Fold this sequence. Notes:
Largest sheet of chain A: 5 strands, antiparallel
CATH topology of chain A: Alpha-Beta Plaits
Radius of gyration of chain A: 17 Å
Mean pLDDT of chain A: 90
Order of helices and strands of chain A: EHHEEHEE
Shape of chain A: elongated
Strand order of the largest sheet of chain A: 2-3-1-4-5
Oligomer: homohexamer
Number of strands of chain A: 5
CATH superfamily of chain A: Molybdopterin cofactor biosynthesis C (MoaC) domain
Helix content of chain A: 25-40%
CATH architecture of chain A: 2-Layer Sandwich
Structural class of chain A: alpha+beta
Number of domains of chain A: 1
Distance between the termini of chain A: 11 Å
Largest interface: A-B, 64 and 64 residues
Amino acid sequence: MMKRKLTHLDREGRARMVDVGQKPASPRRARASGFVRMAASTLELVADGALAKGDVLAVARLAGIQAAKQTPHLVPLCHVLPLDHVDVDVRVDRERCGVTIEASVACRAATGAEMEAIVAVSIAAATVYDMCKSVERGIRVEEIELIEKSGGRSGHWTRSDD
Amino acid sequence: MMKRKLTHLDREGRARMVDVGQKPASPRRARASGFVRMAASTLELVADGALAKGDVLAVARLAGIQAAKQTPHLVPLCHVLPLDHVDVDVRVDRERCGVTIEASVACRAATGAEMEAIVAVSIAAATVYDMCKSVERGIRVEEIELIEKSGGRSGHWTRSDD
Amino acid sequence: MMKRKLTHLDREGRARMVDVGQKPASPRRARASGFVRMAASTLELVADGALAKGDVLAVARLAGIQAAKQTPHLVPLCHVLPLDHVDVDVRVDRERCGVTIEASVACRAATGAEMEAIVAVSIAAATVYDMCKSVERGIRVEEIELIEKSGGRSGHWTRSDD
Amino acid sequence: MMKRKLTHLDREGRARMVDVGQKPASPRRARASGFVRMAASTLELVADGALAKGDVLAVARLAGIQAAKQTPHLVPLCHVLPLDHVDVDVRVDRERCGVTIEASVACRAATGAEMEAIVAVSIAAATVYDMCKSVERGIRVEEIELIEKSGGRSGHWTRSDD
Amino acid sequence: MMKRKLTHLDREGRARMVDVGQKPASPRRARASGFVRMAASTLELVADGALAKGDVLAVARLAGIQAAKQTPHLVPLCHVLPLDHVDVDVRVDRERCGVTIEASVACRAATGAEMEAIVAVSIAAATVYDMCKSVERGIRVEEIELIEKSGGRSGHWTRSDD
Amino acid sequence: MMKRKLTHLDREGRARMVDVGQKPASPRRARASGFVRMAASTLELVADGALAKGDVLAVARLAGIQAAKQTPHLVPLCHVLPLDHVDVDVRVDRERCGVTIEASVACRAATGAEMEAIVAVSIAAATVYDMCKSVERGIRVEEIELIEKSGGRSGHWTRSDD
């Protein structure tokens, strides 16, 4: 069951960091995904690179991992979490004509790592854009979303439950 | 006219930062946008906050401005640019049922500020997600894209030209 | 009872980070405050903004929260602490003619969060200065101080105990 | 002559970064100061360290220099400036019973470096507090203020002009 | 016993952060060292400074401590660790004609702090280079290496065991 | 001709950032190198990865590029420079039995980019260590040094001139 109010706003509507001091640390996981749509001809350049050296995908993957660790310095009200694991998967998807990105983050903490997964996907996607923009400026990042999370009081959630 | 190859990859397909040492600094602008789709009931909570104190929108706007300045540390092959201006507009859009984000960035530099605009939108959108996720985990960030850029050798470009 | 020597200096007087490896993590809180003195006419501009959109105060509050998380990267000998909570309160105080700032920080750690509270206040105050300096360059930040701390071996302390 | 409105707020009262794109780069200087008041006995510990190895003062000086370079990432609406010079002076002042801090910053840019000087002083002061707090928790940072600035359209200003 | 494969690469050879979610936090220590070789005349300038105010050595020591805390943001696949202690020793070594650096790091975590020690030494060494390069550009950093580590499943290791 | 004193220390021997305000921006280049010595069997694992996906080398290259951009935040007295180009080359060297790293940095600035090149090599080397340490803890980073620099008042310098 979801809450009915924005926990990041106090009674007077001002932004605040949620106090997690009463919550024990527990194992938590979050998974998010995103898609970078591009022309088939651009995608082939990415894929060729991928076959040869994998660099567009490799750079995006690393950028995503590093961004996850920067999350509390990017999203103002996030907590600094001791991440146990960050995995960012970046793949050419010829059927949908673009690059799919999926990030998984795990930690043992008093609050979840959903934002780390979302930020990892967002910056990995921006990195794909950066590396391809000289060829196709109109590339579009689409559908950044949480797909699953587990742990904490609210338990397991998957997008399909919604 | 767009280039035919990925300038971020050298002849051997390895990632590299593009050398802009031969390019003079010139005024450049970039504008990007994004959309955060959410349930009408969540949007009303955001809007109510907005009417009272504006905080979800205000926090997202600031997060976007600050993220623009962090771009070279987030997107691995970006240059550090002396930004003259960053503006991030975050608005409730009841018609489309979500929050629209638009970032404008200006600099006088040897390379453009497209990535600063894209990153500002991406992190502003992630911040909207963060502040609303206790109410609706399924919120989706959609359509992060460049809408216009000017300056530099390639001149003026708008999405509608494409 | 306070210590008689500067624990940040070793026997030879060189700076060092204090080793907290033998101390268990325990709940700790710290509260600090500060004051930004300005002309009554400037304060009214801040207050008007505050009534309409609250932005000077809102921006300062966020800057303080984010700075608290950056403390170990700003104050050289501070530990990286897993903060459970950061709250920064920024208010117009017409009686004293200025803006009062108060920061509260909580963590469960082997060392206290006093510096996070002090840094949050300092940067929130600098942000108030930044946003008002086009109107009044002579604004002065005054009286940044710890007002209370609890937890750890030295227990509870308030300024009035001193 | 000072401006009559807060240039960091747009017409709707929302925070924004000021656009400096029409202003040429020109040499600018700013000088700020602050004072850290402490008990005479604490000051002697600092001074002794200073005579032997100078570390409290040396650490504070370095922390101030490094903080100046982080200013745009700490104060949300500041521009990233190419600083030509940062100097932070930290001295024992037995007469006033405390540590005086003065920071000078110079750059060639479209906007001034006042905030870099203010932030350098603020973090140097916080660092003095950090290194002395095990001995005296009630130490107070006082009177952080701009003392002089030159360059730019508004020209030369000193505190005494006010 | 050492592992036979690179745990930072997954089965397909892509970079990944190792998942430490199944490992309990335990006390860990790591010690690394390095050497900065320079001309005897340069070393005397460093030593004279050291005798008077200790600054080249003091700045290098602080830079090393701060770099240790930045390790996860510098080395892409490192975890963010809650460091209990960082000590960086920087000394003039007339016999070997250079500056020796040794860093010790301790934490209670699910993975070791070897990289924090290596990074602390590396940046302390680079800082010595920076402060002396106006006198001798050919200074060389040599022999950055782990000298000891303890804790975790693989237990105690010293260089001499190898 | 080299200077006879440490320009980073003022007359009283305290650390300071050199004032470059009187120096015009001019094109500058710097090149540095380093070597990571390892067992032949470890090198083959790196090389195999390199042949398949190139990841150890690719991750080190990216870490070096990103570290170059962080130099002023790592080396305390460095200026923030607008880098035009950073290139980091990381190669398996079977003859010397290790990985060679070379970084080239270019900027148009009032001071040189030597430190950016040194830091890029240092962090790329640390990253190679990180990715191989599960297989061979005793890997050693050797010979980080400037090999060439051009531009500025002191003109062109190569290691062989020394």
